[in-house]
Amino acid sequence: MCIDCGCSTDPGSLHHHDHKHDEKTSRTIRVEEDLLAKNNRLAANNRIRFAAGQLLVLNLVSSPGSGKTSVLERTLSDLKDKIDFAVLEGDQQTSNDADRIAATGVPVKQINTGTGCHLDAHMVGHGVDDFDLPATDILMIENVGNLVCPASFDLGEDHKVVVLSVTEGEDKPLKYPQMFQAAELMLINKIDLLPYLRFDLQQCKAFARQVNPRIEIIELSCHSGEGMTAWYDWLHAGIERKRMQA
Ligand SMILES: Nc1nc2c(ncn2[C@@H]2O[C@H](COP(=O)(O)OP(=O)(O)OP(=O)(O)O)[C@@H](O)[C@H]2O)c(=O)[nH]1
Ligand SMILES: [Mg+2]
Question: HSE (CB half, 13 Å, CA atoms) of 190?
Fold first, then answer.
């Protein structure tokens, strides 16, 4: 990354302005590598703790407002009698989302990142300290709404689940490919709004598969409930896989 303007110095990237990249640039890249290496070490520690508790850990990522908390609220309300959940909520400010989750009766902790644009493994490691992990089937981590930075930060999760709502436009997988490459599953949310929008569902799915041929896709609306069963089946299958691995 260029320390003057923050743009990528990747030779393949567009870089049209007129300034020199000197040794300061390589120092910046070094710091970035160290930061990610430290995060990866802490994520590995988290993963060991999660494996000991035999729980499924999902990292929900998306742009702000795609419906992550809404999907969680409905999921927890529908499944909490069958599945033991715990939830970590990541936002820059406020405890709004944690308050919404707490209303479902599921254990929740809010992490405020301040100026930070993503959760990291250190925050998550401390965030779960108060949870009874062995008594938990699924830990849901709602990341800060941001379709860029959370893609680079491993939290020790089993899977990233990217939520894309139909109001955002079908081209987002092409514009923000890193996030869709990092995700195992894409939830296309707010499909109840499709009749009112120009959103090409098939094109969106094709774009997502173009950047990640293995990505699984579920279309749903947590308002109408359409498609939620497929998501719940995916969660049950995930828990089953974890139990088989143990
Ligand atoms: N029509 C419709 N609206 C939805 C649906 N899901 C969420 N919304 C609305 O979308 C808005 C944002 O929902 P949130 O659940 O707060 O989104 P979020 O991704 O958690 O937002 P941040 O945490 O701020 O990134 C709210 O007004 C929801 O009511 C849906 O399935 N259909
Ligand atoms: Mg939210």
Answer: 19
Give me the pLDDT at residue 2, please: 28
Q: Which is it for strands 108-112 and 85-91: parallel, antiparallel or unpaired?
A: parallel
Helices and strands: H and E segment counts in the chain: 8, 7
Range of the domain at 206: 23-245
Task: State whether the beta carbon of 118 lies less than 6 angstroms from ligand 1.
Answer: no
Do residues 164 and 172 touch, judged by C-beta distance below 8 A? Answer: yes
Question: Which CATH number characterizes residue 171's domain?
Answer: 3.40.50.300
Is 101 part of any domain? yes
- Nearest CA residue ID for atom 21, ligand 1: 65
Q: What is the pTM of this model?
A: 0.90
> Is residue 11 in some structural domain?
no
Asked whether residue 16 is assigned to any structural domain, the reply reads no
Q: Which atom of ligand 1 is nearest to the CA of 144?
A: 25
Cα–Cα–Cα angle for 61, 92, 53, rounded to 5 degrees? 55
Q: Quote the number of domains for the chain.
A: 1
Q: Ligand 1 center to residue 5 CA distance, Å?
A: 33
pLDDT digits (tens, 9 = 90+) for 36-51: 999 999 999 999 999 9
Helix (H, G, I), strand (E, B) or coil at 68: helix
* pLDDT number for residue 23: 61
DSSP annotation of 82: T
